[in-house]
Amino acid sequence: MRSIASSSLLGAFRSLKIAHTTTITRPSIIPSAAAAPRKVTAPQHVRLFSASASMAGSWLEPQLDRKKKMMKGRPRVATGGSTKGTTVVWGDYGLRMIDHHRRISAAQLRMAEDTIKGRLRGEKYRLYKRIACNVGVYVSGNEMRMGKGKGGFDHWAARVAVNQIVLEIRGILHEQVIRDALRLAGNKLPGQYEFVKKGEAPFVGITKLDGVTLEELKRPRRKVSAETIQPIPPPAEGSNGSRAPLDLP
Description:
Helices cover 21% and strands 18% of the residues. It is α+β, with helices and mostly antiparallel strands.
C-alpha cells in the first residue's frame, strides 16, 4: 500500500510543469493625461455663508469636545467701522435682530427653520443661515450650593450681535409670502426682528449708515470755542419770593 501511495504521489509531482513567468503589469503611479482629475479653482474673494465660525459640524451642532468648558462671553459689537453681517448678501430678503445682543440656542434656531419650511412647503426657495452654533452652554442642577464646578453640558448656542442678519431667503416667491414666513420665524426666536431687503443700508454698531457715511462717523468731534458759548441767565428773584412753601396748610 505504501509503494502504491508513494508511486502515485511521485507521478503527480512529475506531471507538474513550471509555467513560464509572465510579466505582471503594475499600475503606474503617475496618472495619464486622460485620467488626471480636473483641478477646480476656488472662487476668490468669496465670504463664507455664516457670519460666525462653524466648527466642522452642522450649523446647529459643531464637532467640538463637550467636556472642554467654554466661557459665557459677550457678542462682539463692531464699533470700529465694520459692517459685517448686517446686510443681505446671498438672498433677496432677510431677518435682522434689532433690539439687543443675546445668545440663541440651537433648539430655537431649529424651530425657526422648521417654521419657515412649513410655511413655504412646496415652493421653490433657498434658505441661508448666517449664524452657526459654536458656543457650549453648561449648567448645574437646581438647588446646588455655590462652587462645585461650572456644571455639565446642556446645549449649543450662538452669540448674535445687535443688527445682525440671522436668516436669508431667495426664491421664486412673492414678497408678502416671504415676509409672512420670516415673521413667523421671528416669533419663535427671542428678541425683536425686522424684515430687510437686499441693498438696504448697513449698520456700524447701532448706527445705520443711511445718509451718514463711515468717514463722518470716524471724524473726531468738533471743538467749540468758548467765545461762541452763551451763558445761561440766572433766574429772576421775584419768581422764588412769590412762591408759597409746600409745608403750609
